């Protein structure tokens, strides 16, 4: 399961940085240097103490990423950014911060230079959400530890964590109307081409399933099915692993994936839980990845192999027609996982743009900053497909690329499917005659 809070990458980052956190980078010049009263001294002392806390938490966060973060090399290749070399510059920004809001915003901006949608400071309004979804993860010590992070007294106060778990959980149930609006199910061409749109891979999906079941049961003999995940930022991978694909497919599907991680104390439970093994020269030789992948993967300490298998459910429509998955640059996280799975297994023909990546792996890790109680989130695995493709580096390339603008990509993708299906129908008619 992956929970995603997608952010834009490097576009206009310098301008955004100046506009959003100028208070941290611009020196103040309107202070009366002759004001020496006791209140001023107390304020200065408090400010110095806060700044020391900010710098301490920055160093803690930076060292944590330096030890565990998997995508520094990917960022260099894609964006020509050497994150670790920017330490002193980042530190100078933090040294200008005068209050908690400025520190949080500056830290979040620093993390945006990693150019990864799973790397960010957790907003205050999302704390209860993360505490809730991981609260009952007794079967998984990794996820349970994330929930327990929010029970740390300083973090609990910072994020205003609700004491009563039931009340907290009920607050995130969401209304039925909201859940229903997450999906669209209708014919694209009456009686011939079915269309479903999934906006997010939601955890709470009872209403989605109700709508989709009713429609999918009706279209099982159609010529084609369009599954539209363009713009889908992700959510929970079980949405498609446990429901959507099992409801549709007429055969078992398996994708083999690899996860590479850096060693360290905070990941020891994960290595044991998922059966990670040491990365050695012999292992890399046996895996025989492409050179660009091997150059990066060999720097990691541990790796694991997983076969992701999805089988038809008892209530599967066993769809025998053509399946098309519409994708674009905003497909990310668990939606990206679906795109990668669909392409590698042949479940669907992908139509649209190259995706946003970072779909192979488990939930991003979260650590609390000791002095301020803010929480930082970051991915922990370098995900690699069976073909040896680093998902975050190369993303998922569609089988049929659509050259279009942001406004028209969705309609142009659907028109391409119609064009293909019309050609198929014409060939069938000619053959029959």
TrEMBL record:
Source species, domain of life: Bacteria
Single GO MF annotation: serine-type peptidase activity
One Gene Ontology biological process: proteolysis
Residue ranges constituting the Tricorn protease C1 domain according to the UniProt record: 52-111
Protein name: Tricorn protease-like protein
This protein's UniProt keywords: Hydrolase, Protease
The Tail specific protease domain, residue ranges: 192-402
Any matching Pfam family: Peptidase_S41
InterPro entries named among the record's database cross-references: ClpP/crotonase-like_dom_sf (IPR029045), Tail-specific_protease (IPR005151), Tricorn_C1 (IPR028204)
Gene3D superfamilies linked to this entry: 2-enoyl-CoA Hydratase, Chain A, domain 1 (3.90.226.10), 3.30.750.44
